[in-house]
Amino acid sequence: MKRLNLILLCLLIVVGVFGQEKKKKPSAYNKQKQSQEDEKFLEKQWWLGFKAGANLSKANVDKTYSVIAPTNYDASTIGKQYDNYTLLGSQATLEVSFYFKRFLLSFQPTYQHSRFSYSNSFEWSSTEEVANHVQLTFDQEQKLDHAILPLIIKYDVYGNRLRPYVQIGAYSAILLNATKSVTTTGVDNAAGGENEFATETINVGATDLFAKYHWGLLGGVGMNYNLGNNVRLNFDVIYKLGMSNISSTDNRYGSDRLSGVGDAMDDLTLDNISVSLGCLFPMRFLSSGFKTLDK
């Protein structure tokens, strides 16, 4: 009887051990399966974010125009002198992006406020007395508001908590508003003495003087930093290369006040370099505790 009880006890121990092994195998299998699902999940992701920053602009002249035509000296001496990358603008961007295996297709509608300026000088002198002459200098600032609609492709160079990337794309720009301000300074020698003067700044709406639409190409670099809670901090630098004329060819001389001070818009393309900071939020989550970028 004792021998029978001993045999039954041994059988129960063996059954218990095999039963535990059978329970462990499905658990290990489920864990491996879950890991594979996580990897597939991380291969694609939707991101939504916002960023804002500052920009500088450069005007490239294709053809110059002027209201005043000199009669006794070369016209190049009254050409406009552009001050590039000197006036600070701003922009705000909403970003919607789709990530797939290090590549990211991004649509980033942007409100962009850009500024650039130029100056030119004219001189009137007496044919009888050389000492009698008047010199005028016009300093003109342009302020442009555009809705920028870019389509961008990004590539993650390195995928970890800190993710640098490169980006290229193209954009279309819609003019929202434009203003011009003109400040006139001069030296009057016609009265026999040298008198310096300055006039009150002229501020006018100039939307009609600029093209309603233009387009261009863009490229840049940036980086994302994972905060560890499914949120990315974003920093990027974008250079926009204007490819079409931003001036209106139909309304070049459309402003009487600006024509009165000798102004006519040149044919221009506009380059712009912007720096932005922002945040990106994933639109798909595995669980509340899962860190989408901790890979």
Short summary of the structure?
The protein is α+β, with helices and mostly antiparallel strands.
Q: Runs with pLDDT <50, length 5+?
A: 20-26
Derived structural class: alpha+beta
Largest sheet features: 12 strands, antiparallel
* Fraction in helix: 10-25%
Order of helices and strands: HEEEEEEEEEEEHE
Instruction: Calculate the mean pLDDT score and round it.
Output: 81
Count of folded domains: 2
Q: What is the radius of gyration computed over CA atoms, rounded to a whole number of angstroms?
A: 33 Å
Helix tally equals 2
Query: What is the general shape?
Result: elongated
Strand content: over 45%
- Number of DSSP-assigned strands: 12
Distance between the termini: 61 Å
